[in-house]
């Protein structure tokens, strides 16, 4: 590991950036350095601009992807290298706003019925019924399910915040049926490696397989189930902010 990479890693750790964000930023900076075959310390605003043009015009990457690379370079030069550049020296691309394609309740039910593994079906059902991100669902522990208060504890979700989300009676019933068969110990959805939770890749692969089996034309990902959850609550006239129970543990 180079001294610059080590220093950037320490800077991100000090600021408590999420692990996935740290890995992504390091990867983006590495790709940037490899593109010019030089250390980022030897490069300046003109090289950053040329790299953004390369990502946009040559590689034709989506604005969201270019934004990740831009955020990594902004952190590198403003925090780690402490360059006193103007914000416009590393402009952030504007991302177009697009409404997500949302599944109907019937489509969600049909999709979940096409998931052939009990564990995969239950974790995808949980992601939908509780409105969870896939990383939150994969890291649930058995002790996070509070059937007395009818809530699920989300430990260190996005932004490293703890919160509670609602636990519906139907989801609790599904989780109990799953527990009777699998009998998980620590992780609610254990992975193939002993002592480790199921991986995000495994959940996404199961989702793709069920999507093909369901024959639904709309795109389906674990995250689209989260969108469906929020939309279905709104259509039912529910206060989404109150229902999703974003209660900070410290509050």
TrEMBL record:
InterPro entries linked to this entry: CB (IPR044068), DNA_brk_join_enz (IPR011010), Integrase-like_cat_sf (IPR013762), Integrase_catalytic (IPR002104), Integrase_recombinase_N (IPR010998), Integrase_SAM-like_N (IPR004107), Tyrosine_recombinase_XerCD (IPR050090)
Core-binding (CB) domain location: 1-81
Domain Tyr recombinase: 98-251
UniProt keywords, alphabetically: DNA integration, DNA recombination, DNA-binding
Coiled coil: none
Database matches in Pfam families: Phage_int_SAM_4, Phage_integrase
PROSITE patterns: CB, TYR_RECOMBINASE
Family of this protein: Belongs to the 'phage' integrase family.
UniProt xrefs under PANTHER family: PHAGE INTEGRASE-RELATED, PROPHAGE INTEGRASE INTD-RELATED
Protein name: Tyrosine-type recombinase/integrase
Species, as recorded: Polaromonas aquatica
């Amino acid at each position: 590991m180079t001294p610059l990479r080590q220093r950037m890693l320490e800077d991100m750790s000090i600021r408590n950036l999420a692990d996935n964000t740290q890995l992504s930023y390091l990867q983006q900076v590495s790709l940037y350095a490899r593109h010019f075959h030089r250390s980022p310390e030897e490069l300046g605003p003109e090289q950053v601009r040329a790299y953004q043009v390369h990502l946009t015009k040559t590689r034709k990457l989506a604005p969201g992807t270019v934004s990740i690379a831009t955020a990594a370079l902004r952190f590198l030069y403003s925090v780690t290298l402490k360059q006193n550049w103007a914000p416009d020296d590393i402009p952030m691309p504007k991302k177009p706003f697009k409404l997500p394609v949302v599944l109907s309740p019937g489509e969600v039910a049909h999709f979940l019925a096409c998931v052939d593994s009990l564990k995969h079906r239950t974790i995808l059902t949980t992601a939908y019924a509780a409105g969870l991100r896939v990383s939150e669902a994969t890291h649930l522990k058995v002790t996070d399910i509070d059937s007395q208060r009818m809530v699920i504890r989300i430990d260190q979700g996005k932004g490293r915040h703890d919160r509670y989300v609602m636990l519906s009676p139907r989801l609790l019933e599904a989780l109990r049926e799953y527990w009777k068969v699998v009998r998980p110990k620590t992780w609610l959805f254990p992975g193939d490696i002993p002592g480790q939770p199921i991986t995000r890749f495994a959940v996404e692969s199961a989702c793709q397989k069920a999507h093909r089996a369901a024959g639904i034309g709309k795109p389906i990902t674990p995250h689209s189930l989260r969108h469906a959850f929020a939309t279905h609550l709104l259509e039912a006239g529910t206060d989404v902010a109150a229902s999703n129970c974003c209660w900070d543990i410290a509050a």
